[in-house]
Amino acid sequence: MFTVDDVRQFARTLPRSSEHLIRDRVKFRVGKIVYVAFSRDETLMGFGFPKEERAALVAAEPDKFLMPGESDLRFNWVVARVDALDPDEMRELVLEAWRMCVPKKVRLEQQAQAR
Q: Which helix (H) or strand (E) holds 52?
């Protein structure tokens, strides 16, 4: 399991990432685009994910992933239960959500540095 602090530490390593507290919810953004957000009780983590792939993700692991609320269905977004993810899964999901938001040049620079 992981905490919001674990996500915070990882997100700080990602270029152009910033943390915000909006209506008592911790959110991570690139510019104005939210790529990770926690529920108020921090038991759920929403994150950027391709719309066309999320139904398959949720169907494959329904104990781990949920469809977003009705108001968020129009976005590239899915939700995970924090207690069902391990830290490595969290980092992978956060990184992929961040990659969806940054310019290609920034994404490629980060990938080169990670090697």
A: helix 51-60
Note the pTM of the prediction, 2 decimals. Answer: 0.92
Amino acid making up residue 111: Q
CA-nearest of 29, 26, 7 to 93 is: 7
| Cβ atoms of residues 24 and 38 within 8 Å | no
Query: What residue type is 59 in one-letter code?
Result: A
Return d(Cα 45, Cα 65) in angstroms, integer. 10
User: pLDDT digits over 5-36, tens only?
Assistant: 999 999 999 999 999 999 999 999 999 999 99
The predicted-structure confidence for 52-104, as pLDDT tens digits, reads as follows: 999 999 999 999 999 999 999 999 999 999 999 999 999 999 999 999 999 88
